[in-house]
């Protein structure tokens, strides 16, 4: 197998349990370098738990998680970040009593000393992506609007220099006009080479911007394929896209 065939992220038979409740059952998925993959499904289907397990936030009860061929499933979150995985969690989870600038700097906490010289360049880049953050640099993060907080969460994640950006429910609680700003940014980042794994309740938007997708039901994957194939799948249409199949 040559390097081009090695997945950036490979999850095999992943299981996650909370006590006696099995939230994820034997999930296997792949993200290739430069990929844009969406995960859709009902609430409680195991989508967020899968991302948390990949990020090291929760410990898997079974299976393996490999990043560039290296097992990361037993690592704590800060070491997972150093392998190139960044999670933008549901609800954003900013440090609400800290400034915008402080939150951005905390996103870079895992960078090694040899990368310190490029931090200002990367900071300028995320502010170019989200200009409002430059204007709000000294403002307390908790006083930002919901859309501005989501921009800050994305920018904070990007400052860790990820190879894979995982985003959990980006659209949650946001107005359509904000989403019309955020989704094009994700498409731009992906065109520039960043792999993205997106959990999203708005299946129509998710499949529109992604290349491939997985459908979660009852804690496992039931359907997978290209975004176009999923968007035309009768079961997906009737369950998640808000219209009946012809």
Quaternary organisation: single chain
Structural class: alpha/beta
Mean pLDDT: 92
* Uncertain segments: none
Main sheet strand line-up:
6-7-8-3-9-10
Q: What is the share of helical residues?
A: 25-40%
Q: Class of the largest domain, according to the CATH hierarchy?
A: Alpha Beta
- Computed CA radius of gyration, to the nearest angstrom: 18 Å
Q: Which series of helices and strands comes N to C? A: EEEHEEHEHHHHEHEHEEHH
How many helices? The count is 10
| CATH 4th-level superfamily of the largest domain | P-loop containing nucleotide triphosphate hydrolases
- The name of the CATH topology of the largest domain is Rossmann fold
* Number of domain units: 2
Beta-strand fraction estimate: 25-35%
Separation of termini? Answer: 42 Å
Q: Which architecture name of the largest domain does CATH use?
A: 3-Layer(aba) Sandwich
Tell how many strands the DSSP assignment holds: 10
């Amino acid at each position: 197998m040559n390097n081009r065939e090695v997945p950036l992220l490979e999850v095999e038979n992943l299981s996650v349990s909370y006590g006696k409740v099995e939230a994820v059952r034997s999930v296997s998925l792949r993200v290739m370098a430069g990929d844009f993959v969406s995960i859709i499904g009902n609430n409680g289907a195991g989508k967020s738990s899968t991302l948390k397990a990949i990020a090291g936030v929760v410990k898997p009860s079974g299976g393996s998680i490999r990043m560039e061929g290296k097992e990361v499933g037993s690592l704590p979150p800060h070491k997972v970040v150093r392998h190139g995985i960044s999670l933008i969690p549901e609800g954003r989870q900013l440090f609400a009593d800290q400034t915008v600038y402080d939150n951005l700097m905390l996103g870079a906490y895992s960078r090694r000393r040899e990368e310190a010289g490029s931090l200002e360049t990367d900071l300028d880049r995320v502010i170019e992506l989200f200009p409002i953050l430059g204007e709000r640099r000294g403002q307390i993060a908790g006083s930002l609007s919901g859309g501005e907080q989501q921009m800050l969460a994305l920018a904070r994640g990007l400052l860790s220099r990820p190879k894979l950006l995982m985003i959990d429910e980006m659209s949650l609680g946001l107005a359509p006009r904000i989403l019309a700003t955020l989704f094009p940014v994700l498409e731009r980042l992906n065109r520039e080479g960043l792999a993205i794994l997106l959990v999203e309740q708005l299946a129509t938007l998710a499949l529109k911007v992604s290349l491939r997708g997985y459908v979660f039901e009852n804690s496992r994957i039931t359907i997978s394929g290209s975004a176009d194939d999923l968007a035309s799948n009768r079961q997906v249409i009737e369950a998640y896209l808000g219209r009946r199949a012809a």
